[in-house]
Amino acid sequence: MASLSIDHVVKNFGNVEVIKDVSLKVKDGEFVVLVGPSGCGKSTLLRLIAGLEDVTKGDIFVGDENVTRRSPAQRRIAMVFQSYALYPHMSVRKNLAFGLENLRMDRKEINDRVSRAADMLGLEKLLDRRPKALSGGQRQRVAIGRAIVREPSMFLFDEPLSNLDAKLRVQTRGEIIKLHRQLKSTMVYVTHDQVEAMTMADRIVVMHDGIMEQVGTPLELFDTPANLFVAGFIGSPK
Ligand code: ADP
Ligand code: MG
């Protein structure tokens, strides 16, 4: 696993500056939650980190390596989305193994990785099922499993729980926290849910209109919000 450093990153879409000179360091093994209203640039920032969009200015480092010009595959950063995008015609086992088969990894290594991920996520008994025979929460676990088997340098989550009902959301949230403890992996997690942010984060980044309003622990943000926007968003009395 690795640290992440975002250094003066700017992203324009046409004439519109969507990410405005953002810098952030995420420590190795840290769980950072990005919050902010819809349209403030959270997904764009994740896509820039993953290499799915090119930065307009600035640099992105994974550990000591400048990955700004590297492809998504070279960055080895896993991204988990809210829509699970599983292959409907493949078993869970096959869904987990598929990305590895494309890497021409040997069969034993693939099987070992699939077993370890299934074990970690409680999917052992579901390996021969098709996605349509799974609940929403189970599908989301398979989607996370597909990221785990690649042994990525870090995980990015883009509102992974927003398609789940309240009960499943709490349960899956617990599983992601457990996973973070087991893998000790660096994670950047986007949500617009303040409760999720306050309960999961080592540090929270509050974004607004392409900038970072404040970065701090949940307690720091609650106790000493930098401005009214942060106070309003976090729900603290200022
Ligand atoms: P969030 O995830 O916080 O809701 P996004 O990162 O999706 O916000 O979007 C930030 C802004 O960038 C929005 O105004 C959105 O319309 C714009 N945007 C995102 N992707 C594109 C794109 N591919 N082309 C043009 N504008 C985009
Ligand atoms: Mg988004």
Automatic annotation (TrEMBL):
Main location: membrane
Keyword Nucleotide-binding on entry: yes
Keywords: ATP-binding, Nucleotide-binding, Transport
Statement: the UniProt record of this protein carries the keyword Nucleotide-binding: yes
Compartments, as annotated in UniProt: Cell inner membrane
Start and end residues of each ABC transporter domain: 4-234
Entry GO MF terms: ABC-type transporter activity; ATP binding; ATP hydrolysis activity
UniProt record, GO biological process: carbohydrate transport
Topological category with respect to the lipid bilayer: Peripheral membrane protein
Protein name in the entry: ABC transporter
Organism of this sequence: Devosia pacifica
Residues of the full protein shown: 1 to 238 of 370
